[in-house]
Design a protein that fits this description.
Helices cover 22% and strands 5% of the residues. With 174 residues, the chain is mainly α. It has 2 domains: 60 residues; 88 residues, Orthogonal Bundle (Flavocytochrome C3, Chain A, domain 2), CATH 1.10.1130.10. The protein has a two-stranded antiparallel ribbon with strand order 1-4. It has a two-stranded antiparallel sheet with strand order 2-3. The structure holds heme C (2 copies). One heme C binds next to helix 2.
Length: 174
C-alpha cells in the first residue's frame, strides 16, 4: 500500500536522524571537554593550560539570577514586590518607557482593581469630562469612540500597570 510505504520511509528517516544525532553528541562530548568533566580526572588527561581558572567560575549559587543554590527549591521565595500606597492626586506621573508606551499608574490602585464590567473606578477620574477638574491626565483621543470610551479601552489595567518597587535583576537598556 502506498501510505504504508510512506510511513515506513518516514520511520526509517527518523531512526537515521536519531542515530546521526547520537553519534554527533558522542563525538562532541568526547572532544570538547578540556577539563575532562564527566571523565575520571586521573585517567591520564593532562589539565589543559587554557582550562578556566577557578576564580572565573561560578558556584551553583552564582549561576542563576536568584543567587541561591539551584539544587534546592525548599524555602526559596521570589522577592516580594511592593507597590506605592500614595493615593491618586498625591503622586507624580512616571517617566514613560518610550514615547508611545502606555504610562504606568503612578498612584495606589488599592480598591480600584480588578476592573469589572459594572465597576470601573478609573473612568471616574480619567474621562475627558472630569479629568481636568481632578488634575488627572485625561484619556487620549485614541481611547474614545463615538463620543464615549471605546470598549477596547475599558480594561485599563490590561495596558496600564503600577510600577513595583523591586530591585532589577537585570538592567533594562531598551
Ligand atoms: C480619584 C481619582 C483617580 C482614580 C480613581 C484613578 N486615577 Fe489615575 N490618576 C489620577 C490623578 C490625579 C493622576 C495624576 C497623578 C497624581 O496626581 O496622583 C493620575 C495618574 C494616572 C496615570 C498616569 C498618567 C500620565 O500621564 O502619566 C495613569 C496611567 C493612571 N492614572 C491610570 C489609572 C488607572 C488605570 C486607574 C484605575 C485602576 C486610575 N488611574 C484611577 C486620578 C485617579
Ligand atoms: C489596549 C491598551 C490600552 C488600554 C486598554 C487603555 N490604555 Fe490608556 N494608553 C494606552 C497607550 C498605548 C497610551 C499612550 C498613547 C500615546 O501616547 O500615544 C495610553 C495613554 C493613556 C493616558 C495618557 C494620556 C496622555 O495624554 O498623556 C492615560 C491617562 C490613559 N491612557 C488612561 C487610560 C485609562 C483610564 C484606561 C481605562 C479606561 C486606559 N487608558 C485603557 C493604552 C491603553
Amino acid at each position: 500500500m502506498k501510505t504504508g510505504n510512506l510511513e515506513t520511509l518516514i520511520f526509517k528517516t527518523r531512526i537515521l536522524r536519531l542515530l546521526v544525532t547520537l553519534l554527533a553528541l558522542a563525538f562532541t562530548s568526547a572532544c570538547s571537554d578540556p577539563q575532562g568533566g564527566g571523565h575520571d580526572a586521573s585517567a591520564g588527561v593532562a589539565a589543559s593550560p587554557t582550562a578556566v581558572s577557578s576564580s572565573n567560575t561560578y558556584g551553583d549559587e552564582g549561576i542563576g539570577f536568584r543567587k541561591e543554590t539551584l539544587f534546592n527549591e525548599q524555602g526559596v521565595e521570589p522577592p516580594v514586590a511592593t507597590f506605592t500606597t500614595v493615593a491618586p492626586g498625591s503622586s507624580q506621573n512616571l517617566e514613560r518607557a518610550f514615547s508611545t508606551a502606555p504610562p504606568q499608574i503612578p498612584h495606589s490602585t488599592e480598591g480600584l482593581l480588578p476592573i469589572k464590567t459594572d465597576s470601573n473606578s478609573c473612568i471616574a477620574c480619567h474621562l475627558p469630562a472630569v479629568a481636568a477638574a481632578l488634575k488627572a491626565t485625561s484619556v487620549p483621543d485614541s481611547h474614545m469612540r463615538d463620543g464615549g470610551l471605546s470598549n477596547a479601552r475599558f480594561s485599563c489595567s490590561q495596558c496600564h500597570v503600577p510600577q513595583a518597587n523591586v530591585e532589577l535583576v537585570v538592567d533594562n537598556n531598551f
